[in-house]
Amino acid sequence: MHVQEWLETVPAVSIYLLVGLVIGLESLGIPLPGEIILVSAALLASQHGDINPFVLGACASVGAVIGDSIGYAIGRKGGRPLLAWLGKKFPRHFSEGHIATAERSFEKWGMWAVFFGRFVALLRIFAGPLAGVLHMPYWKFLIANVLGGIIWAGGTTAVIYYVGVVAESWLKRFSWLGLVLAVLIGLTSMLVLKRKAKKATSGTPAAEPEVVPAAD
Q1: Which end of the chain is more exposed for a tag (fewer CB within 10 A), N or C?
Q2: pLDDT tens across 95-133, in order?
Q3: Considering the entire predicted model, what is its pTM?
Q4: Residue 70, Cβ neighbours under 10 Å: how many?
């Protein structure tokens, strides 16, 4: 059963909770398909009046912010041993190469790596824990976390919902073809922002080691 078909079988409150929980766990550092769940739920909301897109976007935003904050706290307490443990448990997502790339992004962009990381799948998982490991000041992390969470979650919900409403007649007349078209249009509309964010948070050279003068 496809994600959207499954979502149609559960009540609206359960969908709000599901979206908030999955996105929260993903933001905490657990590799889950948060974006797929959000896109599916937003498209479903455009076709069913029982699901309020504003409530959906708010739940997604709250899940993103809280999840990232918990991830930050865990990372600050666990330190680098936590990253090593995650690398053993989830080698595909927390490999040394991925961690090094994320660290270079944080070194160059600081708090904005948290903001842009919300739009990049890899950094969406890393941002909270890594910011804690690197001891980023919490107030900086919180500002970027809240802004990124609201813009990503709210923006994704709004775009996909609008696309679903516009494509409603196509969805009725062409069934699965219209559904696929709506999803593709929605994802394409976010591609420019995601591409810019990815360029801003990857491919940067590692920071040069600081030269410490010898003691007299």
Answers
A1: C
A2: 677 677 777 777 777 788 888 878 877 778 778 888 888
A3: 0.69
A4: 18
